Amino acid sequence: MANTKKFPHFFLFLLFCCCFFSTSSSIFVPDIKVQQDKDEPYVGVNIGTDVSNLLSPADLVAFLQLQKITHIRLYDADPDILKALAKTKIRVIISVPNNQILAIGSSNTTAAAWIGRNVAAYYPETLITAIAVGDEILTTVPSSAPLLMPAIESLYSALVAANLHNQIKISTPNAASIILDPFPPSQAFFNQSMSTVLSKLLQFCSRTQSPLMMNLYPYYVFMQNKGVVPIDNSLFKPLTPSKEMVDPNTLLHYTNVLDAMIDSVYFSMKNLNTTDVVVLVTESGWPSKGDSKEPYATIDNADTYNSNLIKHIIDRSGTPLHPEITSSVYIYELFNEDLRSPPLSEANWGLFHGNSTPVYLLHVSGSGTFLANDTTNQTYCIAMDGVDKRTMQTALDWACGPGRANCSEIQPGESCYLPNDVKNHASYAFDSYYQKEGGSPSSCDFKGVAMITTTDPSHGSCIFPGSKKVSNKTSEVANATQASGANTIRFLGAQTSKFEKNVHVLFGVALCLFYYSLIQVQLS
């Protein structure tokens, strides 16, 4: 008789607890215990150097400080840049180039010398936070894969010898293609031909509390799956519930492609029995220009993706599988690398041109202090240097004609007529058209002869349309500031909801224990 009474009471106890906790989190999601990153999630930038007339190291660092960029990743360990970064509080990931993996993986002495030359010589004045060993070795240089882990272990031993292993992490950036069947995320798994190396890498990351570095590009997912993956999902645009991607195994809803990619990494790690390694997104971005085969590589799409990415990270949104963990992301990249080989998009991933003028202005108001060049600052559209007069004249004629720009101020005798040259007149006309179109990035192109700048091009008595706009819109600037404050309030509200959720769970535990104690009293 005792057993017949005990079963229903105990069953009700279990049912109560399951129902209660299912309101807090899905009971279908497997237990993956990822270590919470001790630092706040951040947005950094990659700095490639295939740029003509690249800024000097001193000017580069000054530019990073001006833009309030606090985290960068280099594709090497450039000594001049590392020297210039000293005492700036800018945190940097340095890299071992792919062509050095063989030597470092074959010799502990070479690894120790590399650490001494590229790390110990600069740290702690220069805040080196991590070492990226190679870049996408497993997929781009598979012949070096057998020496990847020996190189990582040798470099780590050298860090230990220098007593820097607690301050500086080591990992290797991987391409998203190491994961097969990435959606739904719960079915994702690593390419089995790489499982031996990846298992050792994950064991190393777990042991040293290093992240798994991943290069994740929703742009390529979209391009390879057009008609299946909607563009809005790829760009973080708001979705109706019917457009959200749903994992049928976990019932988790995905509103953007990047979150799905990150969770596919976590599920893949779980399949190799690793549940305590965080994902660091070392590359992500969207190109602003492409050839005829890449029609979605546009300024507007690049602006939308990177602006929404920054907001997503700064808002600490996490992922559906891990809402408590927000991966930090390095945007690819800071500058357009105009020396890169075709296709055209390869040279157009940057936030800025090589001369430090913005390719487009990110919409990041209210998302922390990352990037000074925000759309809340006034912007202007001007003619680029080095364009032949005939091409510039054609663009000027269009702006003043079909474009309906106000070109009255560049007529003879008017305030902006001098200096009387095509470039000066084109800059005024371009800015007039740009301001008339509401400052849309796509309205400052003119077939590649114009660019956006935050520097007021007005001179003497010649006041550009953008400057006139500033003087007439003081109230709008004030409203923008208030809007930024509203975003801060929403951010704090999101944190409060997480706290309430934790209280909710603890309250449930207490109720379960209380109910269980009553059962024991009744049975006794």
UniProtKB/TrEMBL annotation:
GO terms for biological process: defense response. GO terms for molecular function: glucan endo-1,3-beta-D-glucosidase activity. The keyword Disulfide bond applies. Keywords: Cell membrane, Disulfide bond, Glycoprotein, Glycosidase, GPI-anchor, Hydrolase, Lipoprotein, Membrane, Plant defense, Signal. It is a lipid-anchor; GPI-anchor. It catalyses: Hydrolysis of (1->3)-beta-D-glucosidic linkages in (1->3)-beta-D-glucans. The keyword Hydrolase applies. It holds the Pfam family X8. Its main location: membrane. This is glucan endo-1,3-beta-D-glucosidase.
